[in-house]
Design a protein that fits this description.
alpha/beta; UDP N-Acetylglucosamine Acyltransferase, domain 1; 7-stranded mixed beta sheet; 5-stranded parallel beta sheet; 20 strands; binds coenzyme A
Length: about 220
């Protein structure tokens, strides 16, 4: 393994595991189906009864109220007040996962937050969006349908306040995102990244160790390990 410095690591293109076919397209008509609309409405109202309750009592009540509706609810997860989740059945929370106040979790494309992972206040986790480009580009963006791709926070990931995490991004184990960042591509393990778009600014382990972990992840992604 070459003797990499932080400066050299910063210059490497951040790898993004190709997830062929993982972007899902949904037409406006599908989105407007009765099941979709009623599901959205029911959860929006249900959530509004719980989402404002302050303090630790709020954490406990939301754990009880939201847990059964989540795709996965790990032991001792907590969701602080004024955070909005939609839809709950696409959100997986690991053990001790923590979501701070005033966050928007757009989980339609799938959001997975690992064990001891989470985010600070006012973060936006956007796994689903209006389709910006389509064959008929002449249409208004709101008429072009929707696209989605899963977002993953692996274990021990921490995202600072006021960050935006874009669809399809994986934050690998132990990575940290600086406050106010916009994350548009995968962040390697044990790297501290910041800025818009987020780029590595510091390492939490020797660069060689990180490069070795990246290789293992790449092999896994290619089905070779
Ligand atoms: C990323 C972070 C952990 C780094 O902290 P640190 O180790 O003390 O780093 P420093 O302040 O020494 O900064 C190191 C470099 O990164 C830059 N930097 C730090 N945080 C940054 C950020 N959020 N966005 C852009 N650049 C950032 C600094 O400007 C500095 O650059 P320079 O070397 O060119 O001067 C910290 O800045 C941060 O953003 N923490 C999140 C806090 C938060 O959101 N808390 C909410 C409660 S959960």
């Amino acid at each position: 393994m070459p003797d990499l410095t932080l400066e050299q690591l910063k210059k490497l293109p951040l790898y993004t595991v190709e997830r062929a076919g993982s972007k899902t397209f949904v037409s406006r008509e599908q989105r407007a189906s009765l099941t979709e609309v009623l599901g959205y409405e029911a959860w929006a109202w249900y959530q509004s009864f719980w989402y404002w309750i302050p303090g630790r009592l709020g954490w406990i009540l939301r754990r009880l109220a939201y847990g059964p509706f989540l795709k996965k609810a790990g032991k001792n997860f907590h969701i602080a007040e004024f955070t909005s989740i939609q839809p709950p059945h696409m959100l997986e929370l690991g053990e001790h996962a923590a979501i701070s106040r005033y966050c928007i979790i757009n989980a339609r494309g799938g959001v997975k937050i690992g064990n001891y992972a989470g985010c600070g206040p006012m973060c936006q986790i956007i796994s689903y969006s209006h389709r910006m480009y389509a064959e008929d580009d002449a249409k208004h963006p709101l008429d072009r349908g929707f696209e989605s791709a899963p977002i993953v926070f692996e274990d021990d990931v921490w995202v600072g306040a006021h960050c935006t995490i874009m669809m399809g991004v994986t934050l690998h184990r132990g990575s940290i995102i600086g406050a106010g960042s916009v994350v548009t591509s995968d962040i390697p393990p044990y790297v501290i990244a910041a800025g818009a778009p987020a780029r590595p600014i510091m390492l939490r382990k020797p660069a060689e160790e990180i490069m070795a972990l990246i290789e293992v992840e790449k092999q896994k992604a290619m089905g070779g390990a």
